[in-house]
Write a structure and sequence with these properties.
globular; 12 strands; ten-stranded mixed beta sheet; two-stranded antiparallel sheet; about 5% helix; mainly beta; about 210 residues
Amino acid sequence: MLVILLCLAACGKTTTNTDTPANDTPTATVEPTPTETAPPAAELLPLSEDAMTFSYLSGAGGWQTVMTVNRDGTFSGFYSDSELGEAGEGYPNGSIYMCDFSGKFGTIEKINEYSYKLILTDISTAKAVGEEWIEDEIRYVAAEPHGLNDPFEGQECTEFILYLPDTPVDSVPEDFLNWWPLRYSQETMTTLSCFGILNVTTNSGFFTAQ
């Protein structure tokens, strides 16, 4: 009888786990701080000098546009057209149409080893188009930045192409070459000997000195 009672007591005993329970609280995951990448530097124009002078002129007549272009795409220049025959009261010495301007090619994209696409993003003129004034018996008339606008549509152009020296002449528009000062003096040349900027809308061209 005693043996039976001892067995029953052993079977009914409750065992208590006195071990310290494991910490079930989730551990917060610390994500690594992403490395900040600095934005790429703006691409510069591949000019041979920090600033270069480009000219747009026909060689005939009294007009020209001259602009200085910097490697960062900014530029400034002037347009002038002398019309001595346009004289009148107070300006017997004729008239001059002119424009002082500045701006920037804000987008510069390489097309190939010889050329870069330029997008004109900013341009301003010193005086409003059509403004007139008289100095030294000459009438001055504020005009558009000739060569950077479309004279037929009366609006500015935005797309241009920079051509580097050694660009094959057969890879550029024929009308553009007509503005190249050496076009007719050295017709056997097969590559450009200077930098050129093409106005894609009008096919007019600016060129550096030879």
